């Protein structure tokens, strides 16, 4: 199969790569661009471990081809911290013990980031509904939800100040 030259823009950096048209975005992000924070779980779009933001919207990168992301802004977990400082959501995950083995954490962080950027006033019920689309095999859901709620509340206080 013929390979295509594409440029992926990930966390503000451009990665010119050559891929087969059927190469998944998650494989291109990890193997071709070296951004290994995005995890590969089920490879069927069920678990959410591979969630990234594509032009600000959470997507399952195992369900997309890399060629579909050309011309889009891809954000991965590596793009959350700034100058070595964890962002509000990452810090909240630490403070609320919202990770155990950590395999699902990048997917939850990216899903939550997308949710909070789209709607800073998201209700607890809508947050729970949205976060339930990702899986945590260590059953850390209570702490994950608490961490995201706390980050949302901290962002609201920061914006009103």
Explain what the structure shows:
- This protein is an alpha+beta fold and 161 residues long.
- The chain has 2 domains: 4-79, Ubiquitin-like (UB roll) (Roll); 88-160, [2Fe-2S]-binding domain (DNA polymerase, domain 1, Orthogonal Bundle).
- Helix content is 36%, strand content 16%.
- It has 5 helices and 5 strands.
- The protein has helices at residues 25-32, 88-95, 105-118, 124-131, 141-160, and strands at residues 4-10, 13-19, 51-54, 57-60, 73-75.
- Strands 2-1-5-3-4 form a 5-stranded mixed β-sheet, with helices on both faces.
- Helix 2 (88-95) packs across helix 5.
- The longest helix is centred in the last third of the chain and has 20 residues, at 141-160.
Shape: globular
Number of helices: 5
What is the architecture of the largest domain at the second tier of CATH?
Answer: Roll
Q: How many domains make up the coordinates?
A: 2
Q: What is the number of strand segments? A: 5
The helix-strand sequence is EEHEEEHHHH
The CATH topology of the largest domain is given as: Ubiquitin-like (UB roll)
Whole-number radius of gyration?
A: 16 Å
Q: Could you name the CATH class of the largest domain?
A: Alpha Beta
* CATH homologous superfamily designation of the largest domain: Beta-grasp domain
The poorly predicted ranges are: none
Tell me, rounded to a whole number, the average pLDDT.
95
Helix content percent band: 25-40%
Q: In order across it, which strands form the biggest sheet?
A: 2-1-5-3-4
Q: What percent of residues are in strands?
A: 15-25%
Major sheet summary line: 5 strands, mixed
Distance between the termini: 56 Å
Q: Provide the structure class.
A: alpha+beta
């Amino acid at each position: 199969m013929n390979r295509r030259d594409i440029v992926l823009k990930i966390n503000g950096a451009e990665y010119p790569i050559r891929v087969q048209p059927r190469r998944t975005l998650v494989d291109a992000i990890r193997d071709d661009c070296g951004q290994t924070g995005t995890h590969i779980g089920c490879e069927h779009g069920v678990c959410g471990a591979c969630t990234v933001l594509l032009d600000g919207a959470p997507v399952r990168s195992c369900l997309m081809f890399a060629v579909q992301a050309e011309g889009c802004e891809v954000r991965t977990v590596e793009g959350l911290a700034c100058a070595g400082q964890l962002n509000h959501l990452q810090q909240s995950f630490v403070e609320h013990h919202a990770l155990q083995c950590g395999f699902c954490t990048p997917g939850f962080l990216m899903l939550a980031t997308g949710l909070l950027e789209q709607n800073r006033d998201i209700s607890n019920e809508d947050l729970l509904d949205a976060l339930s689309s990702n899986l945590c095999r260590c059953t850390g859901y209570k702490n994950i939800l608490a961490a995201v709620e706390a980050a949302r509340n901290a962002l609201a206080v920061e914006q009103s100040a």
